[in-house]
Amino acid sequence: MKQKTLSNWLKLIVIVLAICGLVICLLILPVIGRNIAAAENGEFDYAFWPWLIFLWLFALPCFAACVIGWRIAVNIGRDRSFCDENAKLISLIAILAAADSAFFFVGNIIMLFLNMSHPGIVLASWLCVLIGAAISIGMACLSHLVRKAAALQEESDLTV
User: Fold this and answer.
1) Which of 37, 58, 128, 156 could form an SS bridge with 48, CB 3.0 to 4.6 Å?
2) Among residues 14, 130, 141, 156, which one has the least CA distance to residue 71?
């Protein structure tokens, strides 16, 4: 597959992910939240807006990762797959994933202490934290490999 084709596919994936994220944040979460808040005779109605704002804040780093992914795709399209800039961008995604996971878990604990959540929700949030940690570790490893490949490519370019 050519660099330009790969770059275009990556850009398409980033666009689709961003659109899915917007649909989830702006359409699905408010509807599900309203249904949950309305259940049990409106017992959790007071928690609707705090939870919705918390989940929107949780989604912001995901959209930032989409922007970073776009920049990586542009570099790949310019035949700069293995460069220090891509290594730094991938490392930034790793940091965003780790910070977002920590924010999500701490936010769930705070919501529990404010009586806006259930202990079962906090336990279920561990799945999101685990996925975020896995993404963070994977991106950190990928960043390391891209940095090493960039150094090898630079050596190769100087040799030729």
Assistant:
1) 37
2) 14
